[in-house]
Design brief:
Order of helices and strands: HHHHHHHHEEEHEEHHHHHHH
Largest sheet: 3 strands, antiparallel
Helix content: 40-55%
Radius of gyration: 40 Å
Structural class: mainly alpha
Oligomer: single chain
CATH topology of one domain: hpI Integrase, Chain A
Number of helices: 16
Distance between the termini: 159 Å
Length: 439
Amino acid sequence: MTETTPTPTGPGRPRTADALNAAAFRRRIRETTDPTSLALFLECSSYRPATITSYAQDVRGWLSYTRTHGVDVLNPTEPQLAHWINVWHTAGPDGTRPRPTVAVRRNRRKALRAYSRHLVKAGICQGYPLAGIRVERDKTRRKASPRTLTPPEIAAFLDAARAENPGVYMTARLLADLGPRTWETAEARRSAWLASNKPPIVRLGGQGRGAVADRELGPCTVAAYEDYDDWIRYVLPTAPRRLTDPLLLVPSRRFTPPIPLTDRRLERLVHRLAVAADLSNPQMITPRTFRQAWIRHALAIYHLTDVAEAVGHLSPSSTIRYSTAGTIPVSPYGARIREAVGRSVVRGVLLYRALEGGEEQPALRELMQHREDAARLRSDAHLLRELEAARAESAALRRRVEEMETRAGTYRYTSPPPTPLGEQQPHGHDEGPPVGITD
């Protein structure tokens, strides 16, 4: 075929290089804009599985929105992005479209930012104009509930949990003894439990949702975990025991194998145990209620900064919110508890509850008794040393006075004996030296 020969036309003509490149580019765009590709990108970026699922769901909603409203998915404008972030696109039962919550809007913006980085990394987009879109913060901070669990109520809750199985009891023990957040309890891993540490601790938080806090464990919590671990080995003998596995496994119903906890299952479990323990207003008791009770009990004994550090707050201002719902009187046992357990806020809360009529803590009570006996003996020993020093000083002063009198040869005046009434000395009595004067 010469240069002057016309190019064949029709369905059978060969595709040029530009057409092949354009088709490959369109195919690449379709593959890159798919939420599955975003999930792979986020997984390679070490995002948590829950975050990947949430972002992928929001990206699917964004892609559906672009197809419905004719928006260019690679080059959207800022008003188009703001409309999708701040508007509820699903009509309610009454036909209204309420404004999404701050959490929903913030999550949509984070998902689009991650999707924009994904498109830039793939080389098919320059990024979304998200710099001018702001999600205002919620002006009304969630206040703490005035409902505070008393030490006897917490003891009744633990008794109800002990009657079920070690998995339920371990979960209740963790809530009551440490006051963790709901998501911290559900997402805790076996690697976070460090019982061999001195003192034993559990590492909670992190995973992109807050600061990591090392929470000290009480003696009863460590004993409950040992029983729970033996129970898991008995009911799941062939299950692998990896450090990345969930820390808490609880059966969904009776005689079923234990499975990992979720936030919703934890709330239902707490409500069921509150009903079984016959607590007042069980519908108001949630996992957060135990955190509130723990913080308020700790504030009755320790300083605000110590409680904030023990509970895992980045700032004491977050801890103050739990004390504004009601007054927190200072415990009369505060000085004795601090003397017995020092700055261990966890042990201090357990001992405070035992002294207030809650669950008995024989080991901590014995420790407090020994510390008080030792302090009393130290005080008695100090008084004895002072008494011996005073006696020695008195004897030394007495010897010094006697030595000075002997050296000077002075007279000491002693008062004469009183003369009885009606008696007079006889006339002519030879008055010798004055009475009472001795050489």
